[in-house]
Amino acid sequence: MKTEAIIIMVCAQGIVTAITAYFFYKVLTTKPKQEPDSYSENDDETQRQDN
Amino acid sequence: MAAKAESWGSRVGLILAMAGNAVGLGNFLRFPVQAVQNGGGAFIIPYLVCFVVMGIPLLFIEWSTGRFGGRFGNHSTPYILDTMAKGRIWKYIGVFGIFTNIAVASYYCYIESWTMSYVYHSVSGTFNGMNQADVAGFFDTYTTIAKSTTGIPFEAVVFYIICLLLNTYILSKGLGGIEKVAKIGMPLLILFGIVLAVKGLSLGTDGASALFPNANAWDGLNFLWTPQFDSLWNPKVWLAAAGQIFFTLSVGMGTVHCYAAYIKSKDDIALNAVSAGFMNEFVEVVLGSSIVIPIAAGYLGLDWVLQNAGFGMAFQTMPYLFQQWGDVLAIFAGIFWFGLLFFAGITSSLAMGTPWIGFMRDEFGWKNKKGAWSFGLIALIMGLPTVIFFKEGVFDEYDYWAGTVSLVVFAFLETILFAWIFGIKRGWEEINLGADIKVPVIFKYIILVVTPGLLGWVLIASVPDMVNKATDEDTNNKEWFADAYYAESYGSTAEFGVVDSVTPNFVKIAFDNERKVFNKAQSSLTTVKYTDFKTYSFKGDQHTVVKKGDVVKPKDKIAEGKFTNNVMYKTLGRLLLITLFIFICVVVYRAYLKRVKEGRATS
């Protein structure tokens, strides 16, 4: 492959992969809001109840 | 009285469902072809710019609009838009958000059924020993309703109905069913994509054969990624980039609003929107660009790709290429490729069912089951003509008016509503409400000026094409029923062709055409002239009226007999779409009357 093609490909794919990973990591690590929130799977977690 | 609203199980489930909604067949088939046709590596620059100034803002608009509407108990666009502005018109503009989904789902499920069928054929070894023409011919046979490749009569219809039933069944399980499919489908899609992308990136010259001695996968990657910076000054390239961003994110459909309507006000939408958006970009830019083009160039050469790049490659070429990997690997590759397309398809088609189901639950108290099966029934009624009259152009007609024009119109109107009528101040507050990231303030001004401007430009630039389509300028056989058949345009600069061979029911016309070939030494495209052929086949009661050596211009009579032209089927397709739109308007009007009666009407 030509150098300029490799540079563009690696840069474009690298930037997109890095930003995707960053945002998804942020989603996974951000503390959820207190109940009642929008998601039902964590409804019974006692430490997340308001009262 | 509305039935109890649902909720998403988890935040990751919602993001995967939203990404699954966006990731579709276009990520693997449309994006690389658009890149090849619009300047290779340079295309990525306008593409990413359009993603930032149009894609992300539209995602913010639709996520926040949906959550805003959900706060008032509205889970589909007619009443989501109605809550945002005064005036009765907005609920009818919101009809686009249901209409587009039903119309697109009706033919999209047909493509999805091809992927199901091709998984079956890959596993059963149907493609073993077939040459390229046989594989292409197989697709042609499959989409010819009267023919069967499995012995099952009306095979294409049967697979279509199975696919629609599967979608309807999952939809009847509510958001939980959709979320489960997304949680299984998206990781599998990415896994299958990575396996095929590794093969595409590492194929090199291993696929060269006696027939295609110069085939090289890296030529495909070179062409796809070598920047041709002069193309940046071409407005058509920017229009193509804007169009690609638009379609790949599934914006302008009403599905994002619907999914987001189940989020509570205090929960984030800003981080969710960019996460789902970038997940779609990952699938498109990283995986989508590393499969079809390099694998096809690796076995058939770049010149073949330049001439044949298109949607059909997925079904007419890839099974043949997989055969080159040996019988066993071909089965796995077939499962991976068509499985990947199936998951890409079903996660999108499921999203298309939710606006109708949400509306009927909100307004008429319909349970999920009733909403899902009614959606399935309407989609079946709308979709059967696209299956049965696929070759007559009904499918393409739906794809153009419902899958292209409606999206742009709706996205433009919703952006104007959000930025200028609802007001950018309130809109900006909505985007930032409960946000887990700090959205750069520049997006406030992009949403106000750049996004509507860009969408307006895409809309205006599409008007001449819309007029041509509506007036059937794309054919010279404009009558529904005719006693003669006239030669169509050659689709090139050629003004005439010469009859190369003719029988009473067949004519082959030679004409001058041009194609682009890749000049490896100069790393640029050069145009070469060649003799192309256009063929026409006629039925028993029709006969040709030209002789070998005759000069044939477009609009010249080439056959006589009784003809039912495709224009009739296309017009009926358009009438069906209009009927569907009016039907949904009537349903929305009934809902409005019900709200008035119950004292819930706001405008």
Structure description:
The complex is a heterodimer of chains A (51) and B (603). Chain A has 51 residues and is mainly alpha-helical. Chain A has a domain at 1-28. Helix content of chain A is 53%, strand content 0%. Chain A contains 1 helix and no strands. Chain A has one helix at 3-29. Chain A starts with a helix and ends in a 22-residue tail after the last helix. Chain B is of the alpha+beta class. Chain B has 2 domains: 11-471 and 573-598, Hydantoin permease (Orthogonal Bundle); 481-564, no CATH class. Chain B has helices spanning 11-22, 25-37, 44-71, 77-84, 89-93, 96-123, 132-142, 155-172, 175-202, 217-225, 235-248, 255-260, 270-287, 292-300, 302-308, 313-316, 318-323, 327-364, 368-388, 394-421, 424-432, 442-470, 566-598; strands spanning 481-486, 497-503, 506-519, 524-537, 543-544, 551-552, 557-564. In chain B, strand 2 (497-503) and strand 3 form a beta hairpin. In chain B, helix 6 (96-123) crosses helix 8 (155-172), helix 6 packs antiparallel against helix 18 and helix 6 (96-123) packs across helix 20 (394-421). The chains are: A mainly alpha (51), B alpha+beta (603). At the A-B interface, helix 1 of A face helix 1, helix 10 and helix 13 of B.
